[in-house]
Specification:
Layout (H helix, E strand, L loop, with lengths): L4 E4 L3 E7 L14 E7 L1 H11 L4 E8 L2 H12 L3 E8 L5 E7 L5 E6 L8 H5 L2 H5 L3 E5 L4 H13 L3 E5 L16 E2 L3 H8 L4 H10 L4 E5 L5 E4 L6 E3 L12 H14 L4 H15 L12 H10 L1
Parallel strand pairs: 1-4, 1-8, 2-6, 4-5, 8-9, 9-10, 10-11
Antiparallel strand pairs: 2-3, 6-7, 11-12, 12-13
Length: 302
């Protein structure tokens, strides 16, 4: 299968408890509901891209138990190429412990499990797939050495790179010039740049070598910053939120699919905004991600 979006991916199983509001230190309370759902920022973004019409391939490392099989079965159903997914026999899979509150917000603790063993050597074994893609994307849930290797291969072959810098963590200077598109949320952007506001933060990261920066702003939409260009502010959508799990991943994966299809920036961002908004209308990450036809119908109806 020809692949046009490659994701250097994390895979987690999301264990989700629904409670009224955040817990205080030492507090225990009964949950109103519990779910076990597929997750991981990389896997989520890959599925979002596939549902928006991209042919997607994964580079990942998963554990050997039934949680690992859950991932393989999911990717097969989504028609995602998993030939470069390595299994660590006897290792624990990535797991996310998620508390969802009545207002739809959430708190998450992530254990990377077998995904922490993803190496540059593993990525280099997938050079053929990377070299023929149109977009290579990653997040900070995978080891930085793997992301660096993937982006170096992409750059050598003229492939667009996209980094979702979440969870927010300090990044090495060597990575910035390899990032064609960066997609932080507002908090991640301000932390990465150590800046007091969005515009100052965006300028600082562009000066470090980032090609384009798209900051996601929830229902306020998103903004695109590029060197020597006027910022592009794209309005969002006010929604009655069920939960926000996976909304950022849906945005990133949809944007990757749009860029792989060579859509102009205004259309790509409008489409990503809409997909992310629709993803807040149901519980979970993958379960809530819309198909391309749903996004298209919703945009046309508006």
């Amino acid at each position: 299968m020809a692949v046009d979006v490659v994701c250097v991916a994390s895979w987690n199983v999301d264990l989700i408890a629904h409670i009224p509001q955040p817990l205080e230190r030492g507090q225990t309370r009964m949950a109103q509901a519990f779910d076990r759902l597929p997750g991981g920022k990389g896997s989520n973004a890959a599925i979002a891209a596939a549902r928006q019409g991209a042919q997607v391939g994964l580079i990942a490392r998963i554990g050997g138990d039934d949680f690992g099989q859950m991932g393989l079965d999911l990717w097969a159903r989504e028609s995602i190429d998993s030939q470069h997914v390595l299994r660590g026999a006897g290792e624990t899979n990535g797991t996310a412990l998620i508390l969802v509150y009545e207002d739809g917000d959430n708190s998450i603790a992530v254990y990377p499990g077998a995904g922490a063993g993803l190496t540059a050597t593993h990525v280099q074994a997938a050079t053929g797939m990377l070299a023929h893609a149109r977009v290579v994307m990653a997040s900070c849930e995978v080891p930085l050495a793997a992301t660096l290797a993937a982006f170096e291969i992409a750059r050598a072959h003229g492939v667009l790179t996209l980094l979702n810098p979440a969870p927010a963590t300090p990044l090495p200077d060597a990575l910035w010039p390899l990032v064609d598109v960066l997609t932080p949320n507002e908090g991640e952007l301000l932390m990465l740049a150590d800046a007091p506001d969005i515009e100052t933060a965006a300028l600082r990261l562009l000066q470090r070598g980032v090609g384009a920066l798209v900051v996601t702003l929830g229902e306020r939409g998103c903004a695109l910053f590029r060197p020597d260009a006027v910022p592009l502010w794209v309005p969002g959508h006010a929604m009655q939120v069920v939960d926000t799990i996976g909304a950022g991943d849906t945005f990133t994966g949809t944007l990757a699919a749009q860029l792989a299809q060579q859509s102009p920036w205004p259309q790509a961002l409008r489409w990503a905004n809409a997909a992310a908004a629709l993803s807040t209308q149901a519980q979970g990450a993958v379960t809530a991600m819309p198909a391309r036809s749903q996004v298209q119908a919703w945009l046309h109806s508006g």
